[in-house]
């Protein structure tokens, strides 16, 4: 009998630009956490202190917590001065602390070439300095795999995680499909599974490149959830469906797309035998 259980979260800017609309749909779907990437036309990095305070108040009133900050830090070229990204990370930590958030998503930078060994070493060194800042701030850094950055394939993600032991991994199935990892769970779980601290759920049809609801593409979502169940995973699974728009820095599904995505993910959880812990205010099943 597995002790694994997950809490669902969702990228609010996939639903709407307005926070009231985001929170209302999360309540409707009985999803008790918001993955904060964008709101009111702004990326999370660009929010003012007053806006951050307002988000905290609105989330508290709706009884929706913030599961993680979907920061853009590291989705930038290695040629950008490191001081710029470290400054951005400090600001993200200020926002996280103001909201009582302990998890921050980061990326592993765009290499100058695709991708030479020096880029891996350079990205790892930069991530190590970021991880040191996170430790001092009481924050867990979540490294997401992403097409085109240094940490795109299973092998390079594993190398970065091995080089920076305090990083946790945010597994994105669709992003692995984009780089040809079509057996990502079979090939990647032994190398990455023990480091998983977060999951972003979108799926992808490898033949067409179309983003699909969970379980309807080649992202092996059910297999991933089965491994999480067997490992005793306790954490978040965050919906990032991209069903209407899949952009470079964000995506959009709209309210109906998020409804479709949530239903599909819950079917996958049932198939995998992975229990969901719903918020205390949810209606009894």
Description:
This protein is α/β, with parallel strands linked by helices and 285 residues long. It has one domain (5-276): Alpha-Beta Barrel (TIM Barrel), CATH 3.20.20.150. It has helices at 19-28, 49-62, 82-99, 117-137, 154-163, 173-178, 184-192, 221-231, 254-272; strands at 5-11, 33-36, 38-39, 42-43, 65-69, 103-106, 140-144, 168-171, 196-201, 203-204, 211-212, 234-239, 245-246, 251-252, 275-276. The strands form 4 sheets. Strands 1, 2, 5, 6, 7, 8, 9, 12 and 15 form a 9-stranded parallel β-sheet that branches. Strands 3-4 form a two-stranded antiparallel sheet. Strands 10-11 form a two-stranded antiparallel ribbon. β6 (103-106), α4 and β7 form a beta-alpha-beta unit. α1 (19-28) packs parallel to α2 and α4 (117-137) crosses α5. The longest helix has 21 residues, at 117-137. The two termini are 21 Å apart.
The major beta sheet can be summarized as: 9 strands, parallel
Percentage of residues in DSSP E strands: 15-25%
Rg on CA atoms, Å? 18 Å
Sketch the topology as an H/E string, one letter per element: EHEEEHEHEHEHEHHEEEHEEEHE
Can you tell me the CATH class? Alpha Beta
Mean pLDDT: 95
Which structural class do you get from the secondary structure elements? Answer: alpha/beta
- Given as residue ranges, the uncertain stretches (5+ residues, pLDDT < 50) are none
Shape: globular
The name of the CATH topology is TIM Barrel
In CATH, the homologous superfamily goes by the name: Divalent-metal-dependent TIM barrel enzymes
Give the name of the CATH architecture.
Alpha-Beta Barrel
Total strands? 15
Helicity, as a percent range: 40-55%
* Overall structural domain count: 1
The first-to-last residue Cα distance is: 21 Å
